[in-house]
Amino acid sequence: MRGDRKVGGLLLTLIGGLRIGTQPPAGTDPVRTDRPAGIASGDEPPDDVHTWLDQEQWTLVHTVEQAARLGRHRLARRLCEALLPWFRLRNSFEPWLRTHSAALEAVRAAKDRPSEAILLRGLGQLYYEQDLLDEAAEYYRGALTVFRDLGDRRGEAGCLLGEASTHREQGRFTRALEFLEGARAIYSQMDDMAGLAECSYGFGHVNREVGNLAGAAAALEQALAAYRQVGDRRGEGMTLRSMAMVHRADGALAKSEQLAEEAISVLREIGDRLLVAYAMQCLAKVKIRQGCGEHAASLLKEALQVCTDLCDGFGVALVTRTLGELHLAAGELDEAAAHLTAARDRWSAMRLDLFRARTDRDLAEVHRRRGDLAAAEELRGLALATFRRYGSREQSELANLLEAGREPTGSE
Predict the structure, then answer these.
(1) Count of alpha carbons within 13 angstroms of residue 301, beta-carbon side
(2) Are 313 and 345 in contact (CB under 8 A)?
(3) d(CA 254, CA 303)
(4) Where are the beta strands (DSSP E) in 212-333?
(5) Residues of the chain with confidence (pLDDT) below 50
(6) Given this model, what pLDDT does residue 128 score?
(7) What pLDDT is attached to residue 22?
(8) Whole-Å CA distances, 274 to 12, 203, 281
């Protein structure tokens, strides 16, 4: 909770700076000096900072907008920076967009380019979290241009990481690696351990996707050590989940189960409900392969509720597909087809062809078990073509399975 209290304290200080001794420009409404309950001058944030921020979220949004209207552009930007981790934790997309848009307009009017770059990067993060990957890349590129013009190497590296993530999620693994290399070179020169942890995590993720499991494991071990060294619990939890996925892909189910459970524990400790849901989905995949369908169903039910509550479209699609796999493993073909088709529609809407192909592979198995071999062959052919186009690990897995006449076991 220490980090949360610091965020709350910073917000109170910044809000106090806006409301005390601020004279509005001529022709505008005066700034209100009365404070809503819970934001009294000099107050300490309550012990439950999560509850406090939930209660005061819209007051804080209005504060940023008022700061921007009054020309307090740096204050508006600082508030955006302080609020961003909270917005990300809660998937509070509308407040995130409103604050950043208002602040961006103000800093541009003031020709404050460093603040402009920071806010453009924040909007890139917003669109990434909303699964609007093309839009995210556009904002990251805009921020990257400004950071480079300013000679801000750390800001440049952060944008390269952001662009790497957008390419990775869209299956453009070669491009993702190029951006990761660029970011790593900068962070290495700066001896920035936190940045290098992010890079190692990215390399591990991409290596897993292309089937280099040994390379993925090595990179993720480096990421885990670095995250622990800098005290980044969120990064630690994400990396444990990714390591669990590597071991699952390698058939080491007991080790995968252990790592997924560790990830859930770490992420619960920091209160990141969405990442807990992703870690639960990861553990559910292991449980399906271990034949523990009831446990898997319980995990997936909770994960789906969280992703739905937080409007996380990617998570909903991922968990829905896993529910399809669960029903498929149980021989419940109608339920499997319904869930897999729903997931496929979501992947199509997000233009995530690789994830759609993974779902097509599962749907092909539904058709095969129903005796519709022509439909199964067609879907597997489409999936294999996509895997080959993206160079993902499934291209060899599926080709080998087709030759051997065995069933696929799923991925992600």
Answers:
(1) 6
(2) no
(3) 21
(4) none
(5) 1-5, 7-8, 12, 14-47, 409
(6) 95
(7) 33
(8) 27, 23, 11
Give the separation between CA 138 and CA 133, rounded to whole angstroms.
Answer: 9
- 176-185 long-range CB contacts below 8 Å, 24 or more apart? 176/202, 176/206, 177/203, 177/206, 180/206, 182/157, 183/157, 183/158
The two tokens of residue 376 are 């199964």
How far apart are the C-alpha atoms of 374 and 132, rounded to whole Å?
Answer: 35
Residue type, 141: R
**∠ Cα 17 61 4 (to 5°):** 75
What would the two tokens of residue 398 be?
A: 């599926």
pLDDT of residue 16: 45
HSE of 325, CA atoms in CB hemisphere, 13 A:
30
Cβ(342)–Cβ(319) below 8 Å: no
Query: What's the one-letter identity of residue 207?
Result: N
51's enclosing H/E stretch is: helix 49-69
Judge contact between 248 and 325, C-beta under 8 A: no
Rounded distance between C-alpha atoms, residue 168 and residue 160, angstroms: 12
Burial label, 331 (beta-carbon count in 10 A; 0-12, 13-18, 19+): exposed
Return phi, psi of residue 164, to 5°: -60, -40
Q: How far apart are the first and last CA of the chain?
A: 32
Backbone angles phi, psi at 372, to 5 degrees: -95, 80
Task: Count the helices and strands in the chain (H runs, E runs).
Answer: 19, 0
How far is the C-alpha of 148 from the C-alpha of 12, rounded, in Å? 33
Angle at which helix 313-329 crosses helix 353-370, to 10 degrees, equals 20
Structure tokens at 365: 């198995």
